């Protein structure tokens, strides 16, 4: 089953809304005619300007986090409907920086996934093992727990909305990417977990992206693997020229 190729740039806590517009203009001029679906996960304050700049282009704008409640007295939090109205079409959930620095649990991430789906935002669920977990032979156990907890109770007809991103924590921002073979092995395992939850056919339709030190030099070999349906890019996505190069490298695979 052919799956769309997806490239997501995660800006993390970089770029003001003015910088966002300039970036998008620059990026769009470089990727005209590209077939990959390009998503940008931007800071909350840049969503409106980024979405306005991306209008009519094949570029989706989304957020990097949200709260699980519809609304309420949660000072400093942001709701799915607010993101949607600002122009977001997707949201990253469970990024390892949220889990590690802000203590987000699997249970909290699970509630966020259900909220995003209920409020019509596409959840990009991020999962991945730490170096200690990999060294201890726990990679599969950790991923199975993260995937099964986060996606429990997702109705089969909504499962196609979910995008999964495998981001080994030891590869994020370190310059050390997983080898394509290593990543493929994990992606196949993740797809098997999805098949246990939603059946083989549905699992075959869900895009699984790789993230962790993706660069123009390594992206092509990663996306050439059978179960790697695109990439989630951090540092290299901060420069529109480099992200455009990554997108071009993916083309024609
Ligand atoms: P780097 O590409 O900087 O390793 O970051 C990956 C990431 O965290 C994307 O969400």
Compact description:
The chain is an alpha/beta fold.
Q: What's the CATH class, please? A: Alpha Beta
Order of helices and strands: EHEHEHEHHEHHHEHHEHEH
Low-confidence stretches: none
According to CATH, the homologous superfamily is Aldolase class I
Radius of gyration: 17 Å
CATH architecture: Alpha-Beta Barrel
Q: What is the fold named in CATH at topology level?
A: TIM Barrel
Counted up, domains total 1
Overall pLDDT level? 96
Bound molecules: 1,3-dihydroxyacetonephosphate
The helix content, as a percent range, equals 40-55%
Shape: globular
Number of helices: 12
The largest β sheet comes out as: 8 strands, parallel, barrel
Order of adjacent strands in the largest pleated sheet: 1-2-3-4-5-6-7-8
Share of β-strand residues: 5-15%
Gap between N and C termini? 15 Å
Number of strand elements: 8
Global structural class: alpha/beta
Give me the secondary-structure topology.
Layout: E1 6-10, H1 17-30, E2 37-41, H2 47-54, E3 59-63, H3 80-86, E4 90-93, H4 96-102, H5 106-118, E5 122-127, H6 131-135, H7 139-151, H8 156-159, E6 163-166, H9 180-198, H10 200-203, E7 208-211, H11 219-223, E8 230-233, H12 240-250
Parallel strand pairs: 1-2, 1-8, 2-3, 3-4, 4-5, 5-6, 6-7, 7-8
Helix pairs in contact: 1-2, 1-12, 5-7, 7-9
Folded structure, characterized:
This protein is of the alpha/beta class. It has a single domain, classed as TIM Barrel (Alpha-Beta Barrel), CATH 3.20.20.70. 43% of the residues lie in helices and 15% in strands. It contains twelve helices and eight strands. An eight-stranded parallel β-barrel has the order 1-2-3-4-5-6-7-8, surrounded by six helices. α1 packs parallel to α2. It is globular, with a radius of gyration of 17 Å. The site of 1,3-dihydroxyacetonephosphate has 14 residues, from β8.
